[in-house]
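A protein record in our archive is deliberately plain, so that people and models can read it alike. The tokens are whole numbers drawn from a learned vocabulary of local backbone shapes. For reference, a complete record is included directly beneath this paragraph.
>
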Amino acid sequence: MNRFLTYIQQQTNAAPLAVFRVGFGVMMCYGIIRFWVHGWIESIYLDPKFHFSYYGFEWVQPIGEYTYLIFAICGLSALFVALGLKYRLAIVTFFLSFTYIELMEKTTYLNHYYFISILSFLMIFLPANATFSVDNLIRKKRYQHIPRWTIDAIKLLLGIVYFYAGLAKINSDWLFKAQPLKIWLPSKYDLPFIGNTLMQQDWFHYAMSWSGMLYDLCIPFLLLYRKTRLFAFALVVFFHVFTRVLFPIGMFPFVMIVGTLIFFDAGFHEKVIAFIKTILHRFLNINTTVIDTISTYKIAYTNFIIPLVVTFFTIQLLFPFRYLLYPGELFWTEQGYRFSWRVMLMEKMGNTTFKIIDKKTGAFFYVNNGDFLTPLQEKQMSFQPDFILEYAHYLGNHFTSQGHENVGVYVESYVALNGRLSQPFIDKNVDLYQQKESFKHKHWILPFNDEIKGF
């Protein structure tokens, strides 16, 4: 405890956190603009008749045309974060608006969206505007030093993301079958030079699988060690640029590349700030000089913030292992799969048909999923049990409201996992309309007829 208290009181240069804030804010603002320009707000949030929601957050729904306002607020708050203008209000607004956007439609779930949400939550409690911010100009003072733990917290979160992603890759499908890369990589035949050569070779699929696992496990430690940091950053750039070329994963590679700059010494970040200041002064004639420089930034309410941050990281360390509380194969049932840094580990395809039955007369008919779902929604629903259950309840409520009586909703579902032949997925004798969503094991998921060993 004495060592911990001593560590909490240690100070360090504020520049790395300021550069991280600028990079994070700029990328998030660009990401929102990109989402808007591509028309995804309309196609994902406005066009669908029905939205898949997270358990406990069913009340989070798109609000019609006002959904554009949520995106505008999110993008503007990201810009304010980058500028360090009213930083605390801006980062709280960004966290709330961005998280609301992600909760509106579960089919858009990606690990890096979750990462951005929890990172922005953590940044609420960090003095990222202590230096190189508009807040400095308004208050006519800046801070040279901040508590060391505020920078280490960002490093720790990045390290968790990488290391847990590496642990998740230690499984028999990834390492000994090169799945799902063996499915994905050959489809990249149109890539120049390597599309018809490397992408078609078995040995390359295995090399990518093993190197991906080793990269994720080792990169946090290589970044921490000064002598290997430059080499590690080169690996970060190569890895994320290469994966961005191969897979449509949006802004995540660039977020990780810019984010890992925080591992570099303060001298590097001071040079970055000096360069930006030169640009601002030369081309925009903005004077970034402030009147007063204060040596140390003191965080208020540390008796509340420190336990909160410790609790936050305790949850981040334990939450990915909640899958151990459920029986069955994780990749098959996906109970405890989300929010655990399991990145691109499986290829699942499903064919799921819903049968509406009058439980008294036995009369039935089949549902055309395309009448209710977009192609993206139907694809995601076809192999994820919680999606199937939520959609079954939507169908039950829909047809009950139309005057159908004694409604039962039954499912015939077949799913293929990582190149295996499709197998029956859902017990077709269970009325899903009578099943309730909860954190309990979904007994109506049929057993997986194989075994995947690993974490």
Notes: The longest helix spans residues 15-37. The longest strand covers residues 348-358. The mean pLDDT is 92.
